[in-house]
């Protein structure tokens, strides 16, 4: 997030796109509801009729996968009506002319054909977001990022925020809601295939030199393998061993059968996890890890806040904190990692990562700090990009609309999408062990619009088979107008309804994230 959770209350306008914070991020969702109660205007861009959509001043029910066309259309209206922030664009950005050229063809008529959004609504929400003098924030989630055009979607969000001068101000900014706890921290530490810790590029010889000098090793200076490309590499014979930590690709990966077949083929599989997941059951070796309450360390939240985590209880049995497992393995493999504690490791992180340089355990003893914290006296950065961007000028990177990878046809005439229920978390390895949570939401229900239910002669509670080009699942239905006509929605928390056997493993060209959110399916009554 460029901004902070606490300044949500300061926003005059909030535009939420590809996110249902009630189910995915309920504590932030509560802050958003409080802002709405206090008079903040809300624009929701979402195919589903969520509770936020029903509370919105403007619910923009787009055709799934058409976000780039919609955002380009809004920008064209803002430029055409001359309501963009001239001063911000002229003094703080570059490549505006290219943005004008790319968005020119996204007339309201053209956009309506792609998105289903009327000219009147397009102009209304564009004018509201661009409101001069108003503090306008954008919040987005995995519904925007989990597409084969996910990076295009995110670039368009950044483009419209800069065009309207909504960056670098409290109550504004671009605020991605991360998919899981400490995803922000993992990315900060370099758990990406194409960056170093602190998001340094692989061309930064000075950064490599610093690591090599401290660790006494020579590091490979090339991109890693994106996690989503591992399965093809196994099938192609390029990878023969795999170490999986805290992931359950048997349930979680798109086109999950493809991943399962790869795991069956691999020579040696190690899984490090806190539970015996479906993936762990396939492993040659399982390394039992401590959970968050059984170890010390830090988490970095979606608002860039670095916070202490303290051990409350001892790990069960032979389970150990992840860092201890890594250190012991490294010693077995011939390289000594002689850390004594999580605090030792964090001190090294702060010495090597510019954003963390001014953070220490003593400074976050009671309250976390938001990076960047460039020195020991810096109070942390509540709002990013005040006055200037990290690279100086903000770069407009306009993108054209690309249709979803898989269109509906006569054989697979409906669209399928997934998401969360507020009572469950991810693939249920933790929440489904709790009886009280199970009582709230005990099974995966397929949401179908009443029009589709009538057409398919379906009633609430009927069982259906949902088939894609990759697999099939069975589920009971609930009939609701939350889902668009022609769309089926199922939460992905339940192993009994392994929805990722249906989803598409087509990848974004830059992030290599998969197309979780759209594929074409056939629905049959059982």
Could you explain the architecture of this structure?
This protein is α/β, with parallel strands linked by helices. It has four domains: about 5-175, Dimethylsulfoxide Reductase, domain 2, CATH 3.40.228.10; about 180-225 and about 290-375, Rossmann fold; about 225-280, no CATH class; about 415-525, Barwin-like endoglucanases, CATH 2.40.40. It contains 19 helices and 21 strands. The protein has helices spanning about 20-25, 25-35, 50-55, 65-80, 85-90, 95-105, 110-115, 120-130, 140-145, 150-165, 185-190, 205-215, 230-235, 250, 255-265, 320-330, 340-350, 435-440, 450-455; strands at about 15, 40-45, 60, 95, 135-140, 175, 240-245, 270-275, 285-290, 295-300, 305-310, 370, 395, 415-420, 445-450, 465, 470-480, 485-490, 505, 515, 520-525. Strands 14-18-15-17-16-21 form a six-stranded mixed beta barrel. It has a five-stranded parallel sheet with strand order 3-2-1-5-6. Helix 4 runs antiparallel to helix 7, helix 4 (about 65-80) packs across helix 8 (about 120-130) and helix 4 packs parallel to helix 10 (about 150-165). The longest helix has 14 residues, at about 65-80. The two termini are about 45 Å apart. The model has no long low-confidence stretch (mean pLDDT about 95).
Q: Quote the average pLDDT.
A: 93
What is the makeup of the main sheet?
6 strands, mixed, barrel
Within the CATH hierarchy, at the fold level, what is the topology of the largest domain?
Answer: Dimethylsulfoxide Reductase, domain 2
- How many strand units? 21
**In the CATH hierarchy, what is the superfamily of the largest domain?**
Dimethylsulfoxide Reductase, domain 2
Percentage of residues in DSSP E strands: 15-25%
Helix proportion? 25-40%
Number of domains: 4
Number of helices: 19
Biggest sheet strand line-up: 14-18-15-17-16-21
Give Rg in angstroms.
24 Å
């Amino acid at each position: 997030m460029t901004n902070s959770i606490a300044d949500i209350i300061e926003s005059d306008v909030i535009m939420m796109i590809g996110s249902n914070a009630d189910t995915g991020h309920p504590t932030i969702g509560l802050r958003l509801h409080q802002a709405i109660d206090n008079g903040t205007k809300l624009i929701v861009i979402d195919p589903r009729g969520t509770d936020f959509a029903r509370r919105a001043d403007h619910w923009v029910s787009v055709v799934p996968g058409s976000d780039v066309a919609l955002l380009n259309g809004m920008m064209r209206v803002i430029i055409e009506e001359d309501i963009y922030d001239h001063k911000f664009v002229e003094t703080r950005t570059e490549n505006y002319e290219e943005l004008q050229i790319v968005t020119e063809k996204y007339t309201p008529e053209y956009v309506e054909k792609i998105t289903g959004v009327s000219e009147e609504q397009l102009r209304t929400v564009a004018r509201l977001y661009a409101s001069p003098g108003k503090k306008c924030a954008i919040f987005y989630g995995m519904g925007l990022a989990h597409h084969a055009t996910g990076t295009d979607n995110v670039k368009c969000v950044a483009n419209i925020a800069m065009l309207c001068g909504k960056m670098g101000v409290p109550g504004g900014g671009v605020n991605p809601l991360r998919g899981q706890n400490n995803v922000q921290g993992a990315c900060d530490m370099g758990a990406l295939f194409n960056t170093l810790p602190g998001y340094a590029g692989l061309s930064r010889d000075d950064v490599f030199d610093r690591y090599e000098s401290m660790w006494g090793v020579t590091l490979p200076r090339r991109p890693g393998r994106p996690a989503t490309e591992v399965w093809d590499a196994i099938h192609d014979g390029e990878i023969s061993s795999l170490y999986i930590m805290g992931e359950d690709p048997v349930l979680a990966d798109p086109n999950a059968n493809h991943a399962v077949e790869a795991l069956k083929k691999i020579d040696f599989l190690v899984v490090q996890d806190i539970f015996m997941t479906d993936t762990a059951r396939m492993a040659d070796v399982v390394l039992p890890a401590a959970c968050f309450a059984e170890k010390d360390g830090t988490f970095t939240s979606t608002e860039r806040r670095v916070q202490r985590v303290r051990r409350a209880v001892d790990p069960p049995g032979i389970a150990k904190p992840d860092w201890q497992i890594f250190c012991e393995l490294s010693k077995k493999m011939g390289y000594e990692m002689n850390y004594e504690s999580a605090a030792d490791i964090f001190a090294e992180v702060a010495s090597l990562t510019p954003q963390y340089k001014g953070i220490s355990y003593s400074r976050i003893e009671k309250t976390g700090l938001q990076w960047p914290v460039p020195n020991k006296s810096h109070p942390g950065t509540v709002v990013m990009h005040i006055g200037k961007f990290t690279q100086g000028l903000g770069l407009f990177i306009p993108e054209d609309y690309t249709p979803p990878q898989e269109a509906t046809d006569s054989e697979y005439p409906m669209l399928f999408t997934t998401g969360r229920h507020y009572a469950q978390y991810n693939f249920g390895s933790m929440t489904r062990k709790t009886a009280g949570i199970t009582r709230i939401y005990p099974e995966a229900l397929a949401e179908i619009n009443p029009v589709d239910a009538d057409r398919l002669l379906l009633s609430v509670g009927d069982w259906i088979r949902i088939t894609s080009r990759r697999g099939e699942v069975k589920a009971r239905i609930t009939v609701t107008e939350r889902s668009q006509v022609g769309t089926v929605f199922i939460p992905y928390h339940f192993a009994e309804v392994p929805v990722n056997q249906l989803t598409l493993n087509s990848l974004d060209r830059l992030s290599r994230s998969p197309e979780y959110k759209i594929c074409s399916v056939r629905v049959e009554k059982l």
